[in-house]
Design brief:
The chain is an alpha/beta fold and 337 residues long. The chain is built from 11 helices and 14 strands.
Length: 337
Amino acid sequence: MNTTINTGLLAFGMSGQVFHAPFIHAHPAFKLCAITERSKKLANQYYPEAKSCDSVDEVINDPNLELIIVNTPNNTHFEYAVRALKAGKHVLIEKPCTSSLAETKELFQIAKENDKEVFVYQNRRWDSDFQSVKDVLTSGILGKIVEVNIRFERYKTAIGPKIFKESPVPGSGLLYDLGPHLIDQVISLFGKPANCYKSTGCNRENSQVVDYAFLQLSYPENLKVNIHTSLLVAQPLPAFVVHGSSGTFIKDRTDVQEAQLLAHMSPLDSEYGLEPEGQDGKLTLVGEDGIKSVESVPAKRGAYMQIFEAVFQTLRNEKPFPISQEQILWQMELLEQ
C-alpha cells in the first residue's frame, strides 16, 4: 500500500483554505492532489501541485485519490459523502456530519458496506482553551463536578451572504453551525446525557434560521451541562465555567489557531497554537479551612493537526479514530430532537 494518502478537497472557501488544506499540505503522510474550484481559481498560488477541478464529481471520481474531504454546504454532506464512498474513497466530513440522524445512520451503513472509513471533523476538541478545561476536569482537583457552562457567542446582526447558512434548509442555522462543536466537546468529556432540554430562537431582524440556542444536558449525580450559543451577544461571558465541590475553573475562549491560519501561518510554525501571555485560565480552590486560593492555569498548544494525525493512524495503523460513530449519532440525536 502506498504510504502517502492522496487527498481531494471538495471546496476551497474559508473551510478549505483555513481548516484543511494547510494541514494536508504540512502533514508528511498526506498529499493534496485535487481541489474543487468552480469559479475563483485561487489554490494554485498556495498549492501549485494540486489540480484545480471544475466540479466535485471530477474530484470524487479521480482514481488516484484515497481520501475525500467533504467541506461543502451542510445540506450536501450526505450526497457527496455517499458518492465518494461508492467511488471507493474514505471521507473526512466537516461538521455537522449530515443534516439528520437518519442520514447519518445511512451514511455509516454505506461506509460499512463499502469497507471505507467516515471521519467527522470535530477539530475543536483540540482548541487550547478546551484542552485546559479537559486537563482540569481530568485532574479531579475540583472535586465532584456539579455544573459546567460552555458558551460560543458572537455579535452579528446582519444576515450573512452564505445562502445555505441563512436559508431554512436542512442543516442551516446556528444550532447546526456552532452547536456540533459544543455538543461534541461535552460528549467527549461526559458521554451521552440522560436527558436534554433545548430552547432555540430566531432573534435577528429578517432572520429565517435559528440564531440562538440553549441546551441543558443532564447527567448522573445531578451534573448539569449548559450550552449557550447566540449571534446577539455584544459582550461575551467566559467560554468555560466549571463548578465543583472544591472550587471553580474559568476560561475565556482564547484559541488562536483560526486567526493564525487566516493570516497564513503554517501549522509547523513554532508559534502556531500558542496563546498570548495573560490568557491563562483562573482556578479558584477552597480548602478544608474555607480559605480560597487562586492560581493561573496556562493552556497547552492548540493542535488541529491531531485530527489529521488520527486519520492517518486509522488508515495506516488501524487505530480507532477518537471521534466515534456512536458519539456522532448521539450528537445528531441532540441536534435533531
